[in-house]
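Pilot study result, target chain (55 residues):
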Amino acid sequence: MQMTPIGSDNIAAPEQLPTYDATELTQGGNLAQIRLSGQLYTLRITRAGKLILTK
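Predicted structure:
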């Protein structure tokens, strides 16, 4: 899945960080896996609308 940064005009200034929609990362669900250096992490959206990232 190709992720597209979101923003008001989709033009990122050099100092601006990439921004992603959590519901897009989870494809409308509440869980997504994120890989970093061979390690898998789980991103979870709670019922309260908070984000939790665990290894």
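One observation from the pilot: The longest strand covers residues 39-45. A full batch analysis is planned for the follow-on phase.
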